[in-house]
User: Fold this.
Amino acid sequence: MRIDIITVLPQLLESPFQHSILKRAIDKGLVEVNLINLRDYSTHKQKSVDDYAFGGGAGMVMGIEPIANCINSLKSERNYDEVIYTSPDGELLSQKMSNQISTLNNIIILCGHYKGIDERVREHFITKEISIGDYVLSGGELAAAVICDSVIRIIPGAISDETSALTDSFQDNLLAPPVYTRPAEYNGWKVPEILLSGHTANIDNWRHDQSLERTKKRRPDLLK
Ligand code: ADE
Assistant:
């Protein structure tokens, strides 16, 4: 999979891909992530990519020209399955959406900024708009990092224990069950006996019951 991220702050996005699972997935060649500086596609002397909003009002708007130059240049090299725009008014990111994106070959993620982007970009270039939650971030970079993390970790081979991504919370619309490790008793607080029993079928049943209980209590909306 290839992910091209268009941003005005490429440095902000370097670190998430230099550690842990995402780094390993890149090193293994499962995914290629390119950080593209939108300013490189500006034709202005000062490399600006924003301008005042027509009709007035506070805040700057990202202009269509550098974005169009950048996306057209990428598209001249290869086909893209999706051109994603990160924005608080996009569709809410879900595990289902991340699963679907993880099956794609080439995607572009355009990080929003300022007061937004010229609407013509959304109409003519963007194929999918994603929000990571009902709150406003200062820019789309952290949202892009969240999307990439949730997508890359489920690419087969990204996590050493193949089954582990499938038992994540949300994979079957259930929250994950509680987990424990050694010591079996700390400060008088004991690990549930069943987990020490070695009886796999009973442990699986217990975990499923715990998942269901936890989901009912914390996220009943997932069970509807
Ligand atoms: N940009 C600003 N806020 C955002 C959000 N909640 N999700 C995605 N992109 C954003």
Notes: The chain has two domains: 2-152, 167-223. Residues 86-88, 112, 131-133, 135-137, 140, 143 surround adenine (CB under 6 Å).
